[in-house]
Amino acid sequence: MSLAIQGLTKAYGGLHVVSDVRFEVPKGALVGVIGPNGAGKSTLFSLITGFLAADAGDVAFEGRSLGRASPMERARSGMVRTFQVPREFSHLTVRENLMAAAPGQAGERLIDAFFRFGTVKAQEKEIAAKVEETIAFLRLAKVADVPAGRLSGGQKKLVELGRALMTGARMILLDEPFAGVNPVLIEELSVRIRELNERGIGFLIIEHDLPALNKLVSTLHVMDRGELIASGTPAEVLANPRVRDAYLGGAAA
Ligand SMILES: Nc1ncnc2c1ncn2[C@@H]1O[C@H](COP(=O)(O)OP(=O)(O)OP(=O)(O)O)[C@@H](O)[C@H]1O
């Protein structure tokens, strides 16, 4: 089991935003999380990735309890998230954004760099090669030297995915990857996600675009008012009366 979400709970004042949510994401799986606005999906992602401290519950990744590990420590262990609103550095180019996301750059510590010049050089070369490979894989060559702030919504999502890939993550949590993305790039992003999944990277995806999500995932988990109300294949979940009730008038998303 790759990721085990074990009773995560979070409240603000009296408002239970995430209540005892538990499910597992098998190694290399493609899994979706859906639910109406305000259901607690983004908060759940923040709890899983350590951006928020849970009131109760825990997360285990690849069999290891993460307890109070920071987002950085969780990323180092192989799990990262993207955000609904991409957090790219808008003044940096696409290439620089990818470069900056690489972990463990010895060059970050100048004293280390002074004493281990050869190591730094070798590592920089390795990172530069990975950046170029990621640019090619995501078809971003044409915009590699463009400041990220000038990209379209869809291109920004590709950069965000690229930044996650640069960390070497084996599990990537995507928060609304298709929001504000044109249909052509939605298809492009979906193809890339599928290819990465075939290479063994697991994905947990929050998305309101159910037709696009259902083409990707094998399992859906549904949240409503902080609770997990259904889990199953997309067909099973969407036929579930409780899920239909959760969405206004039974119209999914
Ligand atoms: N820092 C906070 N303080 C108080 N309430 C919060 C805070 N963060 C989130 N909430 C509330 O928690 C609930 C869940 O928010 P969350 O963003 O996790 O939902 P969501 O399912 O991701 O929604 P959406 O689909 O609209 O992005 C909402 O009612 C929100 O107003």
Layout of secondary structure:
Layout: E1 3-12, E2 15-25, E3 30-34, H1 41-48, E4 56-61, E5 64-65, H2 71-76, E6 79-81, H3 94-101, H4 110-115, H5 117-137, H6 153-166, E7 171-175, H7 183-198, E8 202-206, H8 210-216, E9 219-224, E10 227-232, H9 234-238, H10 241-246
Parallel strand pairs: 3-8, 3-9, 6-7, 7-8
Antiparallel strand pairs: 1-2, 1-4, 4-5, 9-10
Helix pairs in contact: 3-5, 3-6
Adenosine-5'-triphosphate binds next to helix 1.
Polypeptide structure, described:
By secondary structure, the chain is of the alpha/beta class. It has one domain (about 5-250): P-loop containing nucleotide triphosphate hydrolases (Rossmann fold, 3-Layer(aba) Sandwich). The chain has helices spanning about 40-50, 70-75, 95-100, 110-115, 115-135, 155-165, 185-200, 210-215, 235-240, 240-245; strands at about 5-10, 15-25, 30-35, 55-60, 65, 80, 170-175, 200-205, 220-225, 225-230. Strands 6-7-8-3-9-10 form a six-stranded mixed beta sheet, with helices on both faces. A four-stranded antiparallel beta sheet has the order 2-1-4-5, covered by helices on one side. Helix 3 (about 95-100) packs across helix 5 and helix 3 (about 95-100) runs parallel beside helix 6 (about 155-165). The structure holds adenosine-5'-triphosphate.
